[in-house]
Amino acid sequence: MPFVRVMKIEPNIARSFCDLLLPARKIVLAGHLNPDGDCIGSLTGMKAWLDSFYRGKGPVGISVIVPNRIPYYLMFMHGADSIIISSEAPDQARALVEDADIVVCMDLNSLARTEDIAETIRKSPARKIMIDHHPMPEKFADLIVSTTEVSSASELAWWLVSEASSQTGTEIPAECKESFYTGMMTDTNNFCNSVFPSTFLMASQIAEAGIDREKIQMEIMNSFSEERMRLMGLMLKDKMTVYPDLKAAVLVLDQKTKDNYNYQEGDSEGFVNLPLQIKNVEISALFTQGDGYIKVSLRSKGNVSVNRLSRLFFNGGGHERAAGGRIYDMPIGDVADYFEKSLRLFLGGFSA
Ligand code: 5GP
Ligand code: MN
Description:
Layout: H1 11-21, E1 26-30, H2 37-53, E2 61-66, E3 84-85, H3 90-99, E4 102-106, H4 118-123, E5 127-132, E6 143-146, H5 153-168, H6 174-187, H7 197-208, H8 213-221, H9 226-238, E7 240-243, E8 248-253, H10 255-260, E9 283-289, E10 294-300, H11 306-313, E11 317-318, E12 322-327, H12 335-347
Parallel strand pairs: 1-2, 1-4, 2-3, 4-5, 5-6, 8-9
Antiparallel strand pairs: 7-8, 9-10, 10-12, 11-12
This protein binds guanosine-5'-monophosphate and manganese (II) ion.
């Protein structure tokens, strides 16, 4: 018999969640640096659910904060245009956190991922809730809802609000379902990675509720600019190095190339997965030149833990097969060599 595990939120977890929420009047939902589909999906979905939860319970203020710009192709989600960007409105973001009764952190396992508001959250007397699916959660929250046995923070949030709704009679709004579905779909790379039996169950429940899956598919998969498509072609043709003996490939996106192709935040989404389509490539890296540091994206389709690789060599972390990090103080022209050397050490058994 195959072992089939379906995500289950224990009733007492959902009860604790509702107990923390009930007396609160000022709520902040916080996401991570370089917010992706799961981050924005879990935040906007939870905001929609909380609007429903607090209906008829008097005035509440619910704010959503992320550290930096949201990619344009995620802006279709309900409420995305009301999200506060803490790097652009630092005083407003800080004041909201300082004033909050509850801070809910979603899709992040360490407070540092909220970047410039991290210390304000840490010092704030607000009760803290974490809803996340990364390994090794930092224990900063009063309630930690965390497992790696789930596709995404959005899926975990779906199971949590489903249980909380059945306990409290809260209606789950269509906007909540749409956002959580989008977050799950993007974090699984359209049902390719980290898919669990529970993921299909969630998709089925949400599809049955009548959300427009085709619209979501269009917004996420078929809404890029022409320049982004041409940039992708260039990256594969001229900016990819394959290291057959390491079963690895590297893509390097430098600032000049970004400028030439009128690069917008999020245009490189999905690029790092492309080299994994090569039969003998099991590890893929994308290095993107940015302001003050080089952004690192790592993916694996085998047994190599890019989470560990990132922790050891790229100042980051993430999941076993999808991780990220940063490189400081290195010319963009040197990163491919640095990656090759690091991976050679790593595969040779190096550990810190
Ligand atoms: P991406 O390559 O899509 O930016 O990130 C892949 C995964 O790695 C995501 O789960 C993300 O949360 C995590 N990640 C990305 N950058 C960082 C980082 O700088 N630090 C840590 N700890 N995780 C990261
Ligand atoms: Mn996620």
